[in-house]
């Protein structure tokens, strides 16, 4: 920026040309350059480039494929997410349907058997069982007595050298077996006479309660809280599938819907290149154009959003075109931070964007244009 002796200023960047600042002229002409609205396109996940289908400068339409990334990892994650969703859906369906009739019948039968064992433990042995056990013990007592007599006789004959040792040994084995059987029968009789112990009754009761509780669970079905938790897990798995599907779609970079007929401005990639998540190419729409100019603060109060303005281009001489103000900056540029005097405030400039179309192809990005504002 360069200042004259009278305090007037002139911006030498080539984007702004203003006359004397002593007083505003009846018409303000500000030079700028026509630009296309650039749209950055890319992938939100990144990856390795598999193929590039367009070159820089090519025309593309909405949905045209610009490049593809290798989809192997994304496809594997989608398959895993779908498998997990299927498992969650099966679990939810199982809880909502409840137990099968066969499972309920089996649980009822198990509870009935456990109840019978518990009742038997409470009631103890019947008198018929005790009498039968006593009769068995008496019979085994008689067998033991006979075995004892046979052994004593065989022992005597062996000592007198009348009978061999094998006869004595056989009688001894029979006596020992009879003694063991008699002891077992007496223990069984004692148990029946004494009745079931408290520990056995408690164990039988616990077994019955477990079986009955299991049958109740199957009859009543899953709790609503469990069903709600399973449904939430299913929904989470569905969200993972949707996320994986999005990631797989991000493997294909296409022209955006805003491009009726865009031009690929930058795309410098080759198959095998690794790209990070973010923009990988830039496209511009030749029908959606704008001019960026800067105006002084003295003019700012006379401009409003949506105002129509005229502009001319070097390429078309005096032919005038119309545009519309789409943006007015709220902060000034190219000026000192603190403006205290009126002379310094004149130096402040603000960015203004002029929106226009291509005028049936006459206007193109890169053309120099002069915007004409009316007198303030």
Mind explaining what this structure looks like?
With 376 residues, the protein is an alpha+beta fold. Among the domains are: 2-43 and 282-373, Elongation Factor Tu (Ef-tu), domain 3 (Beta Barrel); 73-98 and 225-249, Helix Hairpins (Orthogonal Bundle), CATH 1.10.287. It has 8 helices and 14 strands. The protein has helices spanning 72-97, 101-123, 127-159, 165-194, 198-220, 224-249, 297-300, 342-346; strands at 2-3, 9-10, 28-43, 47-52, 59-60, 65-69, 252-254, 262-266, 274-275, 278-296, 308-313, 320-328, 349-356, 368-373. Strands 3-10-13-12-11-14 form a 6-stranded antiparallel barrel. Strands 7-6-4-9 form a 4-stranded antiparallel sheet, with no helix packed on it. Strands 1-2 form a two-stranded antiparallel sheet. Helix 2 (101-123) runs antiparallel to helix 5 (198-220). The radius of gyration is 51 Å and the shape is rod-shaped. 19% of the residues are buried. The model is unreliable at 1-25 and 336-345 (pLDDT under 50).
What's this entry about, in short?
With 376 residues, the protein is of the alpha+beta class. It has 8 helices and 14 strands. The strands form 3 sheets. It has a 6-stranded antiparallel barrel with strand order 3-10-13-12-11-14.
Strand residues, percent: 15-25%
CATH class value of the domain at 2-43 and 282-373: Mainly Beta
Low-confidence stretches: 1-25, 336-345
Could you report the average pLDDT, rounded to the nearest whole number? 80
CATH superfamily of the domain at 2-43 and 282-373: Efflux pump adaptor protein, beta barrel domain
Number of strands: 14
H/I helix tally:
8
Radius of gyration: 51 Å
CATH fold name of the domain at 2-43 and 282-373, please? Elongation Factor Tu (Ef-tu), domain 3
Element string (H = helix, E = strand):
EEEEEEHHHHHHEEEEHEEHEE
Based on the coordinates given, report the CATH architecture of the domain at 2-43 and 282-373.
Beta Barrel
Helix coverage percent of residues? 40-55%
Strand order of the largest sheet: 3-10-13-12-11-14
> Looking at the structure, what is the overall shape?
rod-shaped
Cα distance spanning the termini: 24 Å
């Amino acid at each position: 920026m360069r200042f004259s002796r009278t305090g007037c200023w002139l911006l030498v960047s080539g984007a702004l040309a203003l006359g004397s600042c002593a007083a505003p002229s009846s018409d303000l002409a500000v030079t700028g350059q026509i630009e296309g609205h650039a749209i950055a396109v890319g992938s939100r996940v990144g990856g390795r480039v598999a193929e590039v289908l367009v070159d820089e400068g090519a025309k593309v339409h909405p949905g045209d494929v610009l490049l593809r990334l290798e989809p192997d990892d994304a496809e594997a994650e989608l398959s895993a997410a779908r498998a997990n969703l299927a498992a969650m859906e099966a679990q939810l369906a199982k809880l909502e349907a409840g137990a099968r009739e066969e499972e309920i019948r089996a649980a009822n039968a198990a509870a009935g058997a456990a109840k019978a064992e518990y009742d038997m433990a409470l009631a103890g042995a019947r008198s018929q069982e005790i009498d039968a056990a006593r009769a068995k013990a008496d019979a085994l007592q008689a067998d033991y007595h006979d075995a004892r007599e046979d052994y004593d006789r065989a022992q005597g004959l062996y000592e007198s050298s009348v009978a061999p040792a094998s006869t004595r040994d056989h009688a001894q084995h029979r006596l020992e077996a009879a003694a063991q059987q008699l002891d077992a029968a007496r223990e069984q009789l004692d148990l029946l006479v004494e009745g079931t112990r408290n520990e056995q009754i408690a164990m039988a009761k616990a077994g019955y309660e477990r079986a009955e509780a299991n049958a109740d669970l199957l009859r009543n079905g899953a709790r609503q809280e469990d069903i709600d938790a399973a449904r939430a897990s299913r929904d989470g798995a569905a969200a993972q599938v949707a996320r994986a599907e999005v990631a797989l779609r991000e493997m294909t970079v296409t022209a955006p819907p805003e491009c009726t007929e865009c031009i690929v401005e930058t795309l410098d990639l080759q198959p095998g290149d690794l790209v990070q998540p973010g923009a990988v190419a830039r496209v511009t729409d030749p029908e959606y154009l704008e001019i960026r100019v800067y105006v002084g603060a003295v003019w700012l109060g006379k401009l409003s959003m949506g105002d129509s303005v005229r502009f001319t281009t070097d390429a078309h001489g005096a032919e005038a075109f119309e545009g519309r103000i789409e943006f007015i900056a709220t902060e000034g540029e190219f000026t000192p931070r603190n403006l205290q005097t009126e002379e310094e405030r004149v130096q402040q400039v603000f960015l203004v964007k002029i929106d226009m179309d291509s005028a049936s192809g006459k206007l193109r990005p890169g053309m120099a244009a002069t915007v004409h504002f009316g007198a303030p």
